[in-house]
Structure formats: structure tokens, C-alpha cells
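Inverse folding, one chain.
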């Protein structure tokens, strides 16, 4: 595997076109913090599989188009070359494109929005990164959340851009109560797998396995933490009485998966105390997901990965200083 990566790097060094593809793949991998083109290739394969599995290939096209636009915008626009090289301008755009493809009806204006949003996500990511630099915390996927929310809300003002996939705006009500007994094994495993695939807005167990494989080729601890985060999320959400469809569909687990990886290994160390801190953050993210789902219901907006962003920011700002 190392030889494959080295050979690809040599090819990228000799060809601007291959370098561009390399950066795009790294951007895909950066959705889950991995600066690895092979990881990105697995992720792209999972996205394409997940889109075709539900007969929605235009969703994958929207995500990849936004990724390409953002990668090109950051390069031509003169943004930080080191950040561009490792794909840090691409991951928010990829998620934004997938969100617009998922929640907006397809059409010419839809793809115009995807292009504009992909380019704009670069500006948002850079601005957020500069603002947070003084606090030594990363922007995470806030660039995606802010860009997607802006463009999804704008769809209500344009007749040529129907938002057929957005949630119906309703006042929050009580959840459908579920039993506190453990989920059936099949439903539990499905919830765990879909919690991972829903990071990329995909409802596919095969896609989830590809995402885990992509993580594992770059970082086995990250893959294990993603799996652990999904298990914690499904268990906590179910025991708290969340609606069954949300639990088994992974819709309360994708943000906790990201929190577990971020706090457990990317921005922390997998020591016993570090893992306990990450696990606590993962539990809180489940609660934040339910809270933001309810808080945004009157606006008909999905929470996206904002629960992960909010909780991870707070836990990083509050993390204990290393022992002397």
C-alpha cells in the first residue's frame, strides 16, 4: 500500500492534472480528517455506490462537482497552498454538494447553485479558519453547515429551485416512544452502519463498509473510534427513547461518529483519559443532535453536522492541559 501511495505521489509530482485529482481525493478523505488519497478513493467509491443504490446518481455528481469547483477555486484564487495540497478546501464543498443534491430538486439551476456553493465554501472555510485560529481550534465542518444552510434557505425564495427534499417546517413535538430494551441485533447493526454512512448523507450499509475501509487504510484507530462512536450513539439514542426510524437510520449517529474520531485520535490521544473524554463528548453529541433537530424543525432545516461542530469546539476549548 505504501508503494502504491509513493507511486501515485511521484505521478502527481510530474503531472498537474494528476496532482489536481490527488488533492480532490485528499479533500474527500478530509471529511473524516484523513490526508490520504487512497482513503479519498474509498470514500468517493462509497458515495457513488450509495447514490446509485437509491437511484440518485445526480447526488454523487453534485458532491463531486462541488469538490472539483472548490479545489480549482482555492488553487486559482491564491489561497494557502499548503492547505490546498492536503485537501482542506475540498471537504466542506463535497458535503455541501451532497446536501444540495439530497435536499434540492435536480435541474439546471440546482447545478448552478452547486457550483456557486462549492466556490463559496472555500471563502467560508478560510474565513472561519482565520477567525478561530486565535483560539487554536479548527473550523471542522462549519464551512459546510453554514454554506448549506444559506443555500437551502435561499431555495425558498427561488421558484426555479424547489426544495423537495427538505424536512417539512413543523413545531417540535414529542418523540414516538420506543422500548428501552436493546434493539434487535439486525436493527442495532444497521443503525451502527448507517450512522457511519450518513456522515456523507448516504443510507447504505455497503457504503458504510467502504467508508470504514477507507478510514482503516489511513488510520486503524480512527476506524475503530468511528465504529465505537456509532455504537455509543445508537445505544444512547435508543435508551433515551428516540424515534426508532431515526436510530436505525443512523440519523442520530453521524455527528457522534465524527466527534468520536475528532476527540479520540485526531485532536486528542487515545489514552484511557482521552478516550473517556471522547466517549463523553460522543454522548453529548447525541443529545445535541436531538436538540438541534428540534430547534431547527420550525425552519424546515436539517441540523447536518452542526451538533458535531458545536460539541467538538466546546470540548477542544475546555480540554484539560497535559499533565506536567
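Residues assigned per position:
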Amino acid at each position: 500500500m505504501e508503494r502504491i501511495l509513493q507511486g501515485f505521489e511521484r505521478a502527481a509530482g510530474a503531472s498537474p492534472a494528476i496532482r489536481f485529482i490527488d488533492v480532490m481525493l485528499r479533500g474527500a478523505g478530509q471529511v473524516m480528517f484523513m490526508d490520504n488519497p487512497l482513503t479519498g478513493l474509498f470514500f468517493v467509491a462509497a458515495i457513488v455506490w450509495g447514490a446509485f443504490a437509491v437511484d440518485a446518481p445526480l447526488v454523487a455528481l453534485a458532491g463531486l462537482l462541488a469538490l472539483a469547483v472548490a479545489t480549482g477555486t482555492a488553487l486559482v484564487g491564491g489561497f494557502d497552498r499548503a492547505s490546498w495540497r492536503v485537501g482542506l478546501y475540498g471537504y466542506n464543498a463535497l458535503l455541501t454538494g451532497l446536501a444540495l443534491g439530497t435536499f434540492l430538486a435536480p435541474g439546471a439551476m440546482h447545478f448552478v447553485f452547486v457550483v456557486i456553493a462549492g466556490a463559496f465554501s472555500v471563502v467560508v472555510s478560510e474565513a472561519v479558519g482565520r477567525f478561530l485560529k486565535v483560539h487554536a481550534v479548527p473550523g471542522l465542518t462549519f464551512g459546510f453547515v453554514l454554506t448549506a444552510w444559506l443555500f437551502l434557505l435561499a431555495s425558498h425564495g427561488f421558484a426555479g429551485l424547489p426544495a423537495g427534499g427538505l424536512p417539512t417546517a413543523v413545531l417540535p413535538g414529542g418523540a414516538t416512544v420506543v422500548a428501552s430494551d436493546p434493539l434487535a441485533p439486525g436493527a442495532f447493526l444497521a443503525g451502527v452502519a448507517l450512522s457511519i454512512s450518513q456522515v456523507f448523507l448516504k443510507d447504505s450499509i455497503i457504503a458504510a463498509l467502504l467508508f470504514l475501509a477507507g478510514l482503516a487504510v489511513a488510520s486503524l484507530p480512527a476506524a475503530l473510534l468511528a465504529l465505537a462512536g456509532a455504537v455509543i450513539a445508537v445505544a444512547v439514542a435508543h435508551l433515551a427513547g428516540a424515534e426508532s426510524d431515526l436510530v436505525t437510520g443512523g440519523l442520530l449517529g453521524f455527528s457522534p461518529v465524527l466527534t468520536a474520531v475528532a476527540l479520540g485520535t485526531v485532536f486528542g490521544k487515545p489514552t484511557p483519559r482521552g478516550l473517556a473524554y471522547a466517549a463523553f463528548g460522543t454522548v453529548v453529541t447525541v443529545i445535541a443532535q436531538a436538540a438541534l433537530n428540534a430547534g431547527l424543525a420550525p425552519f424546515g432545516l436539517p441540523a447536518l453536522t452542526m451538533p458535531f461542530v458545536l460539541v467538538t469546539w466546546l470540548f477542544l476549548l475546555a480540554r484539560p492541559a497535559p499533565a506536567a
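DSSP finds 15 helices and no strands in the chain. The mean pLDDT is 91.
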